[in-house]
Amino acid sequence: MNIELFKHVYFRLPILVRLLVTVLLVMILFGAIIHFIEPNQFPTIFDGIWWAVVTGATVGYGDYVPLSTAGRIVGIILILTGGGLITFYITQFAATTVQHENDLSHGKVAYKGTKHFILIGWNEKTRILIQRALKLDPKLEIVLIDQTLTSISYQHFPIHFIHGDPTDDYILQKANIRDAIRVIITADNHRNEKQADNYSILTTVAVRGNHPDIPILVEILSSNQIDNAIRAGASTILRPNDFMSTLLFHEIFHNKSNPFESIIQLLKTQKFKQIHVLEEYYHKSFLEVSTALHVKQYLVLGILRDNEWHMNPPPSTPLQEGDILITLVPWRH
């Protein structure tokens, strides 16, 4: 029964651990044998184990040497068995390391960290987002899930890649979805708009089912799918088509203002921030509050009141309880 239990535990261990345990047991065995054969030459069992390790590793310091014929036979057997075992262990260790790096680049390794961002879908938007996010915070942990990408080099993109279908619970669990802090779902460029939105919504359902409270940012291409994405559990909806149409409109009819380049340059150094109006600002004018906040590097753009956006309102507009100020602040504010 004890032997069966040992076999049950031993053969379930990772191969590197099994090899290490085997090497240690062999070294202990030979160390004990040489101690009992030549107690004068090897006063303690530890001295014997030391000699076994040095001999098995083919180092041969020469501080302990067997003198009897029996001791030398034990040494020969150790070199033939233990030496090969240690060599095999080192080779296997190197092979396992290379295999792990290969599996990591091909998205086969589960993520074990916490407080990470999960990006779903590999495309140009995702690539630029990763570069800018890591430039802002090099310690940021990012997990990428994609089923079209076969491999990704960690040297070029220091992120954790998982290959698979993000609508599969198993893949989301490999990304440690329960310990993530945010999920960003981008539209699949390999599908038409309707199929891409349906897939994004299905992915949202899967993510929400595995983590009921995590913020989910979803890119939706068709405006008639926005309500479905919200019902699926999306926290924030990105509407790239609406955004690009607005920019194109401004480029066509206000071609001297360069709105597209202005927004790109603006968002490189600034970020939007919504702040609730403090009680001390109640009934004060928009100009007064904007001036007060500008000293603190808050650039006030407008007011969000009763779900209505009032951008660049008249300076005399009084602020009310419940108003939310739309501001711009530096990234490292």
From TrEMBL:
Recorded topology in the membrane: Multi-pass membrane protein
Pfam families: Ion_trans_2 (PF07885), TrkA_N (PF02254)
Gene: kch
Any one cellular-component term (Gene Ontology): plasma membrane
Keywords: Ion channel, Ion transport, Membrane, Transmembrane, Transmembrane helix, Transport
PANTHER family linked: POTASSIUM CHANNEL PROTEIN 2-RELATED-RELATED, POTASSIUM CHANNEL PROTEIN YUGO-RELATED
Organism: Ornithinibacillus bavariensis
Protein name: Potassium channel protein
Domain of life of the source: Bacteria
Subcellular location: Cell membrane
Signal peptide residues on this chain, from the entry's feature table: none
Example GO BP: potassium ion transport
Ranges where the RCK N-terminal domain occurs: 114-245
Residues passing through the membrane, by range: 15-37, 49-66, 73-95
